[in-house]
Amino acid sequence: MKRLTIGTLTLAALCACAVIATAQRNPRGNAKLTLNGQEVTVDYGRPSLKGRKVEDMLGQVKPGGVWRLGADQSTTFTTGTDLVFGEVTVPKGTYSLWARKEADGSWKLVFNTQHGQWGTNHDASKDADAVPLTETKASSPTEQVTINLTEAGGGGRMTIEWGDMQLAADFKAK
To answer: How far apart are CA 127 and CA 74, in angstroms?
Structure first.
């Protein structure tokens, strides 16, 4: 029986890391905001349109279906404080983020308690909360999905941009 050497184990670990890295073909983006001394962060994959139209890409999402808000590993939202989006309170913690298309064509931002999974593995039974997103036309087209967290109205604002579409939701620290 052959014995495994440290070199063999190191090589196996490096190969495993290379496989994981190549599986995620899109660059990652991060957004960060501090509210009441606590951080709110988003980590997400940044797919590109590559000549396609966002309407064609997201037009494939049927009412009740979700868009993973990025690519590859699920989009991860972490808040160190409870946040209030309109009348919905999202408790501090870590979530995966999704955009759910409603029957009227509008979108809702979905906070799911499962996170870290591959981005297409949405388990609706783990959806914690959903808040309305306001859709507007972006002032200039964005090639890659871009999520921003900015200060707004004594709280924060999350914006999601892709192509000429912009989705947004305002929130405050509780």
So the answer is: 14
7 has pLDDT over 80: no
Residue 154 buriedness (CB in 10 A; 0-12 / 13-18 / 19+) = exposed
Contact between 33 and 156 (Cβ < 8 Å): yes
C-alpha–C-alpha distance, residues 23 and 6, integer Å: 26
Of 115, 118, 111, the C-alpha closest to 171 is 111
Query: What is the per-residue pLDDT across 46-77, written as a single tens digit (0 to 9) for each?
Result: 999 999 998 888 888 999 999 999 999 999 99
Distance CA 149, CA 145 (A): 14
Give, for 17, the enclosing helix (H) or strand (E).
Answer: helix 6-23
8-state DSSP, 26: S
pTM (2 d.p.): 0.84
